[in-house]
Amino acid sequence: MSEYSAIVLAAGEGTRLRPLTQNRPKPMLPAATKPILEHVFDQLIDAGISKFVVVVGYRCDRVQSYFGSTYRNVPITYVTQKKQLGTGHAVLAAESEVDDTCLVINGDQIVDSRIVADTIARHDSAAAATIALLQRPNVEPYGGVRIGEDDVATEIVENPRDGYGYYLNAGVYMLEPAAFDAVRSAEPSFGEHHLFEGLSKLIDSGETVRGTVSEGLWVDATYPWDLLDVSFELFDRGVVTSSPVISGRETTVHDEAIIRDPIILDQDCAIGPDAVVGPYVCLGENTTVGANAVLERSVVDDDTTIGANATVVDCVTGTGVEIGPGSTIPGGPGDVRVGDTVYEDEALGAVLADRVTDRGGVTYVPGALVGPETEIQSGATIRGTLAGGTEVRS
Amino acid sequence: MCGIIGYAGAQADRPVLEVLSNGLSRLEYRGYDSAGIAVAPEMSVYKRKGDLDVLEEQLPDAPVGALAGIGHTRWSTHGPPSDENAHPHTDCEDGVAVVHNGIIENYRELRDDLEAAGHEFDSETDTEVVPHLIEAALEQGADADSAFRQAIGRLEGSYAVAAVFRGREEVYATRRQSPLVLGVDDGCALLASDVPAFLEYTDEVVYLEDGQFATIRPSGIEVRDQRGALVDVSVETVDWDPEDAGKSGYDHYMRKEIYEQPRALRECLRGRPQPFEEAISIEELEELPRPTEVQFVACGTSYHASLYATRLFREHGVRATAFLASEYDIETVPVDEGTLVVGVTQSGETADTLRALRTANGVGARTLAVTNVVGSSAARETDHTMYIRAGPEIGVAATKTFVSQQVALAMLSSALTGDCSREFVESLRALPDQIQSILDGSRAEEIAEEYVHADAYFFIGRGYATPVALEGALKMKEITYRHAEGFAAGELKHGPLALVTERTPVFALVTGDSNTERMLGNVKEVEARGAPVVAVTDDPGLIEAHAEHVLRVPETHWRFFPILANVQLQLLAYWVAHRLGRSIDKPRNLAKSVTVE
């Protein structure tokens, strides 16, 4: 058991996950039936971390009211980063709460405890920092690190274009005080302090930054539909186990309902007669699935109601969503528009943000993205991206 | 109304002073005008008027070599806050020190007797008779244990008492009608007025019954009955998470508890609404028959929840009345075998409510406690108990427990009468997320900012919303120290309208039920007097033209509108108090759980 504290970065919104992040930061979005951050905490505890210092900012109430002052007996200290001025800035905000050597981890990506434990084991104070690395075919969307002899890092970059030869930066670091100093003294770029820039500076100044290549689960959701794959991977890797019916205390599954594994149900769910639920379905707390509804390959967040005879496939919902009776989300593939970019043929039925209400008989063209609090009258057809708070008539 | 703590354990494990002062900080909500600590076997007493920080400055930094100790945080009932009146109290020779929660009714006679026998008193408290009674018994040759028992035998009234003796490494304690719970752990033992005081050290507890005596030693606890026979006690494990005693990064417990409401409500609802059977089932009340009449007894915020519940019961066809517990008088209230007397008390220790419940028990009425605290006096002394499951609440101003009380009582009214509908069940299950949506988007902070310097705040509602108008005003009074009143809107024109000016904002609870038209009439009355109107509503269309501001809540079953509207009023009071720099979690002169009548 290590006695290290972990600085967990949970202040950023995760703007590419809009509209799901309207009311909460990315670390609080669901992976299976728990927030991503809760999985991060679980893995950290498995790796022996004994204290969490959580940097919060965007919609911090959501993090604080969910976890409180301890998680599984590990004390949590909150540090508020009022403006999200980069990961380096966030780490500096938490500096006074940790001892000399500490772990730093992103709170919005699920990382295997093995990767964390490997990083702790590889680190010694001869290095100013140790970075967890993974061998992945596509590093470009993330951070990349090159290493040389004795695993010493030679280059740290974001979004390496010439992906060749880079390891993926898993977002897990062991840092010595010298690393904090380097982050502090690094020139901000566009007003933001980034951790990778501070570490680059360390390398430039001749300090040792080590990379340690590890393996294990590492999942990240960049876009809303990625939440489906993140949850499904948790099933496939056995991180969440499918044990329907008994999994949530007080959950009611009608005798005539059909359950197809894998599925996971949280507490107070209710599944009506002749509903067909699964495979690959995650039902958050207090969700209701009406009679004869069909639900497949979907992540349904807390307090959502799926009406009788509705069909819901490849769907991500926020909290308090109401899918009306007889509504149809037939599933992907579909083209999804985010800003000016169109992502073609994504396996997405629909993303319905918090408290979208449809009155029934609504058809969703694959790839639909509906903003929070939108009300859809019965019989409407929804396609493309809808802003929040709108009213859609049929 | 006070809090007590006791500890016996080896210094090497945990410094006695540290355990006691940590415990007192967890009990501060029970009172905080003075505090003190006494430790043995070498008797030292530290006590001060003021809050715990003042006492802590006086405590020695070095270990004191103590093995046993007692502590007390006080809320004055006899004698003003002062160093002398702070507990622990000692006898003439400082051979015994005592802390006490409750009221000793015959202290005047006892004190006269003791003074006649030459005992000298330092304080004006009722408690000080106890150490002198013990001293008198010791002088007669009694040992510590029997001296303690003899002294307690002389007392009339309510008490939880703990004592330490010079030269002894244990704490003696007993209770009658005031709460006292014991904690056990390897190599130490604890006692306190309630569990959170020592939850960081142990979750294994024993609830002491009325009239039992306990001795706690580093080696464990010993419980005996009134005649001195050993009692075989059952040790229970408390499943509260000690996290709940922390502020989790919030400035105030009140704010934390407001934001915890969706979660608290989920716990309250857990397993109770039956979505496919259109029924409410309350497991712990399955044996409770349908009453012909319901009488609620409660105080403060719990009384407002009770008022709300009476309307629900009446609508379900059962006669129901809410009484202020301190005014509940069985000579004037008829009770028969069909009457159910429901005590609504967050802590389960509210003295006025307990007295009313005991009165009801005494005349043979069936009694039910609706409470948040498992094992509390109300839970143990009534025929039935329903838990609201809100989790510990530390802020003195009740927030999440009020919302849980409202919802618990709404479920109770349906479960006992069998009157339910699909809409009722679905609307209940929607409440946690609807409250979350209010928390996500409330404009209460900016509205509070605008009216922070108002002369007074008025809250009006009709029907189901009236109790929440009263509660909104109570919350505002409690934490801002500003004048606030709640009225049934129809009553305005019968008097209170004379108070309304352009410097008194009126908060109107307006919902889309049959009262809306009349409510609009009331709003126009205050509008005509120039008062700014802030509407709390689920249907702004009707009221917008007459209101300066609108605080929106989601549409719900009209019976539940006040549950949602209340959240906006909590936030409003919080932000006004915040702007005024008030002591939000510990308002002046108030304590969380009022254990005196």
UniProtKB/TrEMBL annotation, chain A:
<keyword id="KW-0808">Transferase</keyword>
<comment type="pathway">
    <text>Nucleotide-sugar biosynthesis; UDP-N-acetyl-alpha-D-glucosamine biosynthesis; N-acetyl-alpha-D-glucosamine 1-phosphate from alpha-D-glucosamine 6-phosphate (route II): step 2/2.</text>
</comment>
<protein>
    <recommendedName>
        <fullName>Bifunctional protein GlmU</fullName>
        <ecNumber>2.3.1.157</ecNumber>
        <ecNumber>2.7.7.23</ecNumber>
    </recommendedName>
</protein>
<feature type="domain" description="Mannose-1-phosphate guanyltransferase C-terminal">
    <location>
        <begin position="260"/>
        <end position="378"/>
    </location>
</feature>
<dbReference type="InterPro" id="IPR018357">
    <property type="entry name" value="Hexapep_transf_CS"/>
</dbReference>
<dbReference type="Pfam" id="PF25087">
    <property type="entry name" value="GMPPB_C"/>
</dbReference>
<dbReference type="InterPro" id="IPR029044">
    <property type="entry name" value="Nucleotide-diphossugar_trans"/>
</dbReference>
<dbReference type="GO" id="GO:0019134">
    <property type="term" value="F:glucosamine-1-phosphate N-acetyltransferase activity"/>
</dbReference>
<keyword id="KW-0511">Multifunctional enzyme</keyword>
<dbReference type="InterPro" id="IPR011004">
    <property type="entry name" value="Trimer_LpxA-like_sf"/>
</dbReference>
<dbReference type="InterPro" id="IPR050065">
    <property type="entry name" value="GlmU-like"/>
</dbReference>
<feature type="domain" description="Nucleotidyl transferase">
    <location>
        <begin position="6"/>
        <end position="231"/>
    </location>
</feature>
<dbReference type="Pfam" id="PF00483">
    <property type="entry name" value="NTP_transferase"/>
</dbReference>
<comment type="pathway">
    <text>Nucleotide-sugar biosynthesis; UDP-N-acetyl-alpha-D-glucosamine biosynthesis; UDP-N-acetyl-alpha-D-glucosamine from N-acetyl-alpha-D-glucosamine 1-phosphate: step 1/1.</text>
</comment>
<dbReference type="InterPro" id="IPR056729">
    <property type="entry name" value="GMPPB_C"/>
</dbReference>
<keyword id="KW-0548">Nucleotidyltransferase</keyword>
<keyword id="KW-0012">Acyltransferase</keyword>
<dbReference type="InterPro" id="IPR005835">
    <property type="entry name" value="NTP_transferase_dom"/>
</dbReference>
<dbReference type="GO" id="GO:0003977">
    <property type="term" value="F:UDP-N-acetylglucosamine diphosphorylase activity"/>
</dbReference>
TrEMBL record, chain B:
<dbReference type="InterPro" id="IPR029055">
    <property type="entry name" value="Ntn_hydrolases_N"/>
</dbReference>
<dbReference type="InterPro" id="IPR005855">
    <property type="entry name" value="GFAT"/>
</dbReference>
<dbReference type="GO" id="GO:0005975">
    <property type="term" value="P:carbohydrate metabolic process"/>
</dbReference>
<feature type="domain" description="Glutamine amidotransferase type-2">
    <location>
        <begin position="2"/>
        <end position="219"/>
    </location>
</feature>
<dbReference type="GO" id="GO:0005737">
    <property type="term" value="C:cytoplasm"/>
</dbReference>
<dbReference type="InterPro" id="IPR001347">
    <property type="entry name" value="SIS_dom"/>
</dbReference>
<feature type="domain" description="SIS">
    <location>
        <begin position="447"/>
        <end position="587"/>
    </location>
</feature>
<dbReference type="GO" id="GO:0006047">
    <property type="term" value="P:UDP-N-acetylglucosamine metabolic process"/>
</dbReference>
<dbReference type="InterPro" id="IPR047084">
    <property type="entry name" value="GFAT_N"/>
</dbReference>
<dbReference type="GO" id="GO:0006002">
    <property type="term" value="P:fructose 6-phosphate metabolic process"/>
</dbReference>
<keyword id="KW-0677">Repeat</keyword>
<dbReference type="InterPro" id="IPR017932">
    <property type="entry name" value="GATase_2_dom"/>
</dbReference>
<dbReference type="Pfam" id="PF13522">
    <property type="entry name" value="GATase_6"/>
</dbReference>
<dbReference type="InterPro" id="IPR035490">
    <property type="entry name" value="GlmS/FrlB_SIS"/>
</dbReference>
<dbReference type="GO" id="GO:0097367">
    <property type="term" value="F:carbohydrate derivative binding"/>
</dbReference>
<dbReference type="InterPro" id="IPR035466">
    <property type="entry name" value="GlmS/AgaS_SIS"/>
</dbReference>
<dbReference type="GO" id="GO:0004360">
    <property type="term" value="F:glutamine-fructose-6-phosphate transaminase (isomerizing) activity"/>
</dbReference>
<keyword id="KW-0963">Cytoplasm</keyword>
<feature type="active site" description="Nucleophile; for GATase activity">
    <location>
        <position position="2"/>
    </location>
</feature>
<comment type="subunit">
    <text>Homodimer.</text>
</comment>
<keyword id="KW-0315">Glutamine amidotransferase</keyword>
<comment type="function">
    <text>Catalyzes the first step in hexosamine metabolism, converting fructose-6P into glucosamine-6P using glutamine as a nitrogen source.</text>
</comment>
